[in-house]
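Q: Okay, next protein. This is Ligase-associated DNA damage response exonuclease from Thioclava electrotropha. I've checked the sequence twice, so it should be correct. Can you predict the 3D structure?
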Amino acid sequence: MAEPLLIPRPEGLYCPSGNFYIDPSRPVARALITHGHADHARAGHGHVLATRQTLEIMAIRYGEDFAGQRQAYEGPLSVGGVDVSFHPAGHVLGSAQIAITHRGQRIVASGDYARVANPSCAPFEPVPCDTFITEATFALPVFKHPDPADEMAKLMASMRAAPERPHLVGAYALGKAQRVIMLAREAGYDAPIYIHGALQRLCDYHIEQGIPLGDLRPATMDKAEARALREALVIAPPSAFSSPWVQRFADPVISFASGWMQIRARARQRGVELPLVISDHIDWVDLTRTVREVDPSELWITHGREEALMRWAELEGRVARPLHLVGYEEEPE
């Protein structure tokens, strides 16, 4: 029997023929990385292959010595005799699906992906394959993400209705924060946007990459200045809302931008007054549409709601298997 092209291991997805891992959760000798989020891109590998932007994002987050060696993907190549290519995933800046082909078999590891328009990164590119590995973060029929522009309209309406209260929006440092800023600009908000210090370097990097974020200012003012802030939009990582930093603002409207905000109980648990259902992950409708479009012989499912997608695949007459990989969730920021 021929050796499998890709094997789930405790470290992550392993390709024996090429002797490399895809998005390993532990340090390995050779890693191929789909994107820069901390649950997929970890420091300490011997050699890392990723898009140039993902490598630069990892250097920002972990330091220049985050790996023994690094190689920017610049087109199809062979790794240990296995053909490898990267294709846009539509998730965050630099994100890519990784296609590996060997002995007539092609597997595509999507990493995290999305099908909605996102001006901060290249749109998702469907890649025909024998096996498609999909995330299942929001793989339940209940998850149908609304139009991000409509969610941003809610924020703008709230700011007009309560101009005396600063609006603090929780957003992950890579991707979501810049997406919220760009949505606000597209909605016509041209005033300064204040950002938490944890977002500064990644916002600067997006600007360097030609992504217009407008007038950004640091939300590092002292308590008196913060309490005097009115009609202001402030973006911060979710972790900041459980720190003393948030207490410097007088009567803020607490908001959070996430696909999980569709679950009202989660919003209440976080003390979120204004939930914004804005996600950089695929929802149920787009996930099932993507599987039909790619039309793989096998569907492998990682990190998320595997049971519903397994049942859907069964009803569709598709071969599917859960990989039960651990360590891949939303960023713990």
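A: Here is a summary of the prediction. Residues 78 and 84 are 6 Å apart (CA to CA). The chain has a mean pLDDT of 94.
Q: Noted. On to the next one.
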